[in-house]
Amino acid sequence: MIQIPTLGLLAIDAGTGSIRTTLFDTKGRIQRQARQGYNVNLAPGGCAEQDLGALWRAVVATLREIFSDGGAQVAGIGVTGALSLVLADAKGEPLRPALLWQDRRAVDEAGVILRDIGADALFSTAGRRVDPEQNACKLLWIKKHEPEHWRRAATVYAVKDWIVQRLCGGRFTDRTTASYTLLFDVYRDQWNLDLTEALAIPEALLPPVTTGQAQAGTVTREVASETGLPEGVPVVVGGPDGTLGALGSGMAAPGMAVNIIGTTDVFLACLDQPVRDSQRGTVLNAYVVPDRWAIGGPMGLTGGALRWFGETFLSPENASSSDPLFHVLDRLAAKAEPGADGVFFLPGLSGDRVPRWNPAARGVIFGLSAEHQLHHIVRALFEGCAYTLADAVNAVAHLGVDIGDIRVAGGGAASDLWLRIRAGALGRPLNVVKELEASSLGAAIAAGVGVGVYADFPTAVGEAVAISHRIEPGPTLVGTYQAYYQVYQQLYRRLEPVFADLAKLRQG
Fold it and tell me: Is the peptide bond before 355 cis (omega within 30 degrees of 0)?
């Protein structure tokens, strides 16, 4: 008997430093996977850019690896990625490198928007406060500093939208990606044309907004020849990595919440009605699941802070080339007692996001004495990221949002120690999903719903998402971290004006 291959669902995940392309079966199991790294340009002045030629070559390389033997069968393709801005001409060719979410150069433009439009007016439509990372601010920065690029611009994409356009020619974005730009009315589910007019951002620059499972087109003959993908495979619009990570963790109904632990943390809780945050600390997004919203949002560098510390400060005797960096950090952190003997870490290396939104914030290691050793500092890094997560969870809970089942996924969820620290800092149990690469799985699920493999999103997560195990918060650990969390909050409040003074000095 000839065995017919089962149709798979392909996910392309454009991360901050690499492309991950994964073929899943309909039960959420990985069948094939390929990764390809690339460099990100981080330069003084808040620059964070990505060469799109290198990124596309990475996409092609991973696709060629997946389809090298021609045996993979694909029903649909979903694309996800980190928040970003791509300015493209009328042919879809990028005019400059992509601006990544952590690019902070548009501080002045954010100030202008806040002054001219007003915080209340912005929050009443966009569901968030203004921040330099948002595409509204970045577009004004390009308009001011790169007028030639602005003159030639035809479309503004996120990186994942640009990849979709390269694959199938479709010019779209999804509701959640649009939500993050500041230019989208999350309550009326459409571009805020009053705001774009006030900011003199041409409506024509903005791609049509649709759902994450909507089909953007099919793989073109040219791309099929270049990548090995089968021609004519449907490509869906997809969504941001944090949001699709929530979907890939099973978040499809109110009462569910997800923490995605990656380069940055994302915490999202599912709503059946939008909630207004008078403190403006959280982000409200139109969610990938129809008639649902997500509240919470992204934090600063968390996993990225650990990687930065390890790559910058670990000496050869601490880490051999054969031992993964995060395994080394795990072992070091485990040597210190909870509370890191009074050492604290504030993970503001790229500024703070939810819930403080302070672009001037910087990383801080506090409480050092001559008795402290490397393992105390590493433990403090783990704990500081957990306190930052607690800030986000508490900000959502204070809005009266029912937070029941909290699920965790992402690369950082592979560390049992980090999860136990987080459960202790939150005082809540955490359900660890089986497939930690939840953003990729979420993209595959969106593709599956879009092409009819699954009837709807609840059916899809029921079939494709499973829980691996549960982390219970130990009572002793909860008590310890409650006390240390209070000191962490005091430390931040007292340093907040110092961050502002430092920012003025650096601007010179």
Answer: yes
Pair 17, 132 in one domain: yes
Separation CA 339–CA 328 (nearest Å): 19
Its domain, for residue 76, covers 8-237
Nearest by Cα to 475 from 346, 344, 338: 338
Determine the residue type at 367: G
Of the residues 237, 254, 276, the one at which a domain ends: 237
Of 217, 237, 257, the residue that ends a domain is 237
Q: Where are the beta strands (DSSP E) in 177-307?
A: 184-185, 190-191, 209-210, 215-218, 234-236, 239-240, 256-261, 264-271, 283-286, 293-301
Distance, in Å, from the CA atom of 314 to the CA atom of 304, rounded to the nearest integer, reads 15
Consecutive 10-residue runs of the chain (508 residues): their mean pLDDT?
62 94 97 94 92 97 93 93 96 97 94 96 95 96 98 98 98 97 97 98 98 98 97 97 96 96 94 94 96 95 94 75 85 98 96 92 97 98 98 97 94 96 98 95 98 98 97 95 98 97 87
Q: Which of 383, 382, 390, 414 is nearest to 307 (CA)?
A: 382
Q: Is residue 197 part of a domain?
A: yes
State pTM to two decimals: 0.91
**134 domain-assigned:** yes
Residues 124 and 16 in one domain: yes
Phi and psi for 96 in degrees, rounded to 5? -160, 170
Q: Answer yes or no: is 250 within a domain.
A: no
d(C-alpha 424, C-alpha 485), whole Å: 11
